[in-house]
Write a structure and sequence with these properties.
Layout lengths: L12 H18 L2 E8 L4 H16 L3 E6 L23 H10 L5 H10 L3 E5 H7 L11 E3 L1 H9 L1 E7 L1
Parallel strand pairs: 1-2, 1-5, 2-3, 3-4
Helix pairs in contact: 2-4
Amino acid sequence: MAKKKKDDGPLDLDAQMKELEKRIKKLEKDQPDDAIAMVVAANSFDKAMMPFIMGVTAASMGMEVHIFFTFFGINLLKKGYSPKMPGMYMPFTGMMVNKMKTLNIEDFQGQLKMAKELGVNLYACNTSMEMMGIKKEDLTNGIEIVGAAAFLDMAANSKVQLFIS
């Protein structure tokens, strides 16, 4: 014999609306920020240009941009650093820079300057700095030194995460 269903009584629409509003607020709070987080672990010309072109573009679109430089990528933040094409392509670095000029694309130092002007957040990995004997005064101005955990918190709250190595 089938059991009789318990009568739940009249629907409490106000209580249901409040519960739905609470759920919506939680979902909105849990949404990632309109941000992009990139990790840069290499210092060659191609690996240097990618995060800056992407970062400058994202900042121009109104996104918050976080770029974390670790391992050899941290060299890109040194004062006056000029990245080269990797390996056997190194002699072609000048050709790439000239081609970029003809296309009105800023060189590396120009991209770095634009990124800072647009508010791109640039971070140096404190562990990599220690490992490589790099001091804060070796870095260009405007660089924040953070650990991996601090950057991972930023990345976890970003819509886009990229790793460039």
